[in-house]
Amino acid sequence: MRLDLEVRDAIERLELPFNSLGVDPYGISKSQLRFWFTAVGAFYRYYFSVRTRGVEHIPHRGRAMLVGNHSGGIAIDAAMVVVSCMFEMNPPRLAQGMAEKFINRVPFMSQWASRTGNLMGLPKHAERLLEDDRLLMVFPEGARGTAKLFKERYSLVDFGTGFMRLALKTKTPIVPFVVLGGGEAFPTVSNAYKLGRLFGVPYVPVTAYGLPLPIPAKMEIQYGPPVFYSGTGNEDDGVVLGYVAEVKRQIAGMLEDGARRRRGEPQAVGQGQP
Amino acid sequence: MRILIPGAAGAIASAVVVHLKEAGHEVVGIDRRPWPAAPVEFHQVDVRKRAAEDVFRRVRPQAVVHMATVSALTMGGEERHQINLGGTRAVFDYARAYGVEHCIFIGRHTFYGAGPDSALFHTEDEPPLELNRFPELADLVAADLYAATALWRFPEIATTVLRICYTLGPSGHGTLCNFLRGKRVPTVFGFDPLFQFLHDDDVVHAIALTLEKRPRGVYNVAGPQPLPLARLIREAGRGAVPLPELILAGMLGRFGMPKLPAGALNHLKYPVVVDARAFRELTGFEHKRDEIATIRAYREAFPTPF
Fold first, then answer.
1. Closest CA to B207 of B160, B171, B166
2. Is B117 in contact with A23 (Cβ distance < 8 A)?
3. Domains: count for chain B
4. Distance from CA of A113 to the nearest CA of B (A)
């Protein structure tokens, strides 16, 4: 109940243009946010005991792009990042993710995604949100990121370049972050791609203990200082790939530091030269 | 200004007629439906018929607002196709033949289609989607695109294609009003798309502004922010009845529901929301009723049935 009140208070302090019914122009609904953040907030505090550092690097207002590593089978890392911006920032901000396209086809998930501000992952949506000075959360690894196996948990797969072109075009600062522990919370040993196709999802992660549910591993989120690249978004591939590699290097470095700090020395960290 | 309005007897069109007349314009209406108490010169003729051309020849309108298209999906496909495409062709042909300066085609925002991959806030440059799953919309989409060809075929006419979102309000006219009419409104279980709507009066105002500003091109018209369907139903004093998609699909064509392809249910699963900034910037259009006042106006005119 106490948490619910805190959630209620945080949502009231969000600087989003809600109408008198508590719905914003993208269909984000206060009542659904309360419900969602109460549920996922309990996971943040008590189940994964998430520790967040560097939240001061996120701009309080105006457009910004959170860019980080993906892990944790079913995108629990994304949920925790969103909660950290809601709970740890003052005033709180709603980080909006880009939902995988399959989500729109799945009953309830479709409804949940749009009511909590996670629009379908279209470049057009991302651009519009940034032009509206929202906080966008981007995982340049995409679904390949959440599909990482336990042994790959501190590695990075290839970064897409779309986020960088968008940041250049919309003149958006990039706040790099890493989530540590997503891989431990969701120790994937294998991904069932064929089973996933049956359900209309990209894959079904298989854990060592069989169930596709996370275990209460401690998670950490670390935000780094914002970086800004100036340009138009129409630069040559070489230029953009260079910028992406810089961001990836920064994230890989933060990941390495974090992994070293945590118990259980991880394996080699990809230094990702594309 | 002399303004000719094909389709003038419709609910929104007749409000446009009254508004323009009160603003001091000389308005002439055409419709194949009767309009006994028409406050302006009115001809009950089919726009595709010779008699309609005679009206154009005699009146020599400076502007035409083409509102004689139908979206009624209960109507036979062939007839709807004839009215929507044949009628639009006739209007533009007459407009050119008789020196019309400005021609407005009143289209619908459902042009863009509803589907799992469609974006929020469609801009005018986007092509229609999901036509294969909802072919009943094809003739309206074709009429919209055909009307836009006048922009290059008849450069001497200022052509405006308006894609207007759902209307809601005391007129009770339009797809959304009809959908909300009953005490209980079916929805698709697990889906709650955003709906975008505009008060009747604001639609009239937008059309009047278009006549005044004469913008060339294709424009989305919308006003207040969209609302989730479930919220809209609740605010309208109705009850949403979420039904699994398979059951809803099985009900189509029965229990008084129109016979539609299952693709039509996409409009209850996915949003059709347009970006209307271009129109607002060009004409200075601002809606007078927000989403809440608009629903209230509808609710007052159509209280919850017992």
1. B160
2. no
3. 1
4. 11
Looking at residue A273, its pLDDT comes to 39
pLDDT, one tens digit per residue, over A215-261 is 888 899 999 999 999 999 999 999 999 999 999 999 999 999 988 88
Q: Is residue B152 part of a domain?
A: yes
Provide the domain count of chain A: 1
Q: Is residue B96 part of a domain?
A: yes
Q: Which residues contact B37 (CB under 8 A, 6 or more apart)?
A: none
Per residue in A34-92, pLDDT (tens digit) is 999 999 999 999 998 999 999 999 999 999 999 998 887 778 889 999 999 999 999 99
Coil, strand or helix at B237: coil
Residues of B in contact with A23 (CB under 8 A): 225, 227-228, 231
CA distance B222 to chain A (A): 12
Shortest distance between the Cα of A248 and any Cα of chain B, in A, equals: 29
Q: Please indicate whether, in this complex, the C-beta atoms of A120 and B190 are within 8 angstroms of each other.
A: no
Cβ–Cβ below 8 Å for B116 and A111: no
Residue B74 lies in a domain: yes
For B223, which residue in chain A has the nearest alpha carbon? A25
pLDDT band, very low/low/confident/very high, at B74 (cuts 50, 70, 90) = low
Is B186 an 8 Å CB contact of chain A?
no
A-chain residues near B188 (CB < 8 A)? 107
Exposed/middle/buried for residue B78 (C-beta within 10 Å: 0-12, 13-18, 19+):
exposed
pTM comes to 0.90
What pLDDT is stored for residue A217 in this prediction? 84
For B112-147, the pLDDT digits (tens) are: 999 888 889 999 999 998 888 888 888 999 999 999
**Where are the strands (E) in B165-223, listed by range?**
166-168, 184-188, 194-195, 197-199, 217-221
Q: Does residue A266 lie in a domain region?
A: no
Burial of B71 (0-12, 13-18, 19+ CB in 10 A): middle
Residue A131, in any domain of the structure:
yes
Cβ of A101 and B116 within 8 Å?
yes
Put simply, whether B116 touches A (Cβ < 8 Å) is: yes
B63: CATH: 3.40.50.720
Q: Is residue A270 part of a domain?
A: no
Distance CA(B137)–CA(B144), nearest Å, equals 11
Residue B211's domain comprises 2-170+197-224+273-288
The complex's ipTM? 0.89
Q: Report the 10 Å Cβ neighbour count for B33.
A: 11
Residue B290 forms contact with A (CB below 8 Å): yes
In a domain, B189, yes or no: no
